[in-house]
Design goal:
single chain; 107 residues; alpha/beta; Glutaredoxin; 4 strands; disordered N terminus; disordered C terminus
């Protein structure tokens, strides 16, 4: 099943791990309504189900609400557990991540 098969995007957007970001962003641009937004966020804490990052936990509900009110689509990219973030994570080192043409990236 290719990235652009209709069935590939049927369950998107859903939170995805950062390793799936390129294909999830491509599907977002192809199969989902604009405006489109991408947010990089912390993985859920197994104990709470909320992002381990307190800033992410506070901001995500507002982001979800605003995107929904705008009639847009939000792709949540989970950057990993706290331990991975502390040691020089890919997203921290390379914030100029490639985004498809009409996708707005924020971190």
């Amino acid at each position: 099943m290719g990235v652009f098969a209709a069935s590939a995007g049927a369950t998107d957007p859903r939170p995805c791990p950062v390793r799936e970001y390129p294909s999830a962003a491509a599907r977002l641009a192809w199969a989902h309504p604009s405006p489109q937004y991408i947010v990089f966020t912390a993985d859920p804490d197994p104990a709470t189900g909320q992002p381990w990052c307190p800033d992410c936990a506070r901001a995500l509900p507002a982001m979800r609400k605003l995107v929904k009110e705008a009639g847009g689509t939000l792709l949540e990219v989970e950057v990993g557990p706290r331990e991975a973030w502390k040691v020089g994570h890919l997203v921290k080192l390379h914030m100029a991540l490639c985004c498809p043409g009409n996708v707005v990236c924020s971190a």
